[in-house]
Task: structure prediction
Amino acid sequence: MHAPQLVIFDCDGVLVDSEVISNDVLARALCVEGLPTTLAEARRDYQGLLLSEVVSRAEEKLGHPLPADWLANYERDRTEAFHRDLRPVPGAADAVRDVVGAGIAVCVASQGKLEKTRLSLDLTGLRELFPDGTLFSAHDVPRGKPHPDLFLHAASTMGVEPSRCVVVEDTASGAAAAVAAGMRVLGYVADSDEAAIRQAGAEPMPSLDRLPRLLGIA
Result:
């Protein structure tokens, strides 16, 4: 197996420990609107979706539209929670540094908006690891994950063939997107559904300190 030329990291749940925070805020916001939702249910039903898809799915469950300002209020409350509680995923900084130290390029490809990714990386001290021009958002391509558009866009912009890319993901939809893009995918499963990620085509990885060995650089 050739060594990769580019490692593409998902952000939420891979670099920053944001999934519980985001989905707790989401569950509370949906409860207020009359849709009882636990944290576990929010993660099961909405994690990994674009926010527009979250709104559509919630409105389908409710049977009527959410208030016009619901999404803006959710994003505001989530940002406040990030400022209070967001932390890097254990081992994230060292893993990225090991990849860069081996002469392999890195970038971030997230379902979230670029401003959310920048904020998350800033708050966790990881932003300096990713140079300008290496952050990519599903909002900049026609289709988000599980479609391959985002990863293909990131690889093309970085000037690397898909076959020479490795993706690090923590969701089945992200893993499916990487496979559809023709990329090897490592599934970080410390806080994810390992069976679903494996079924989507990822190689399970229980901790980020395993990354260098799996890439053949340690």
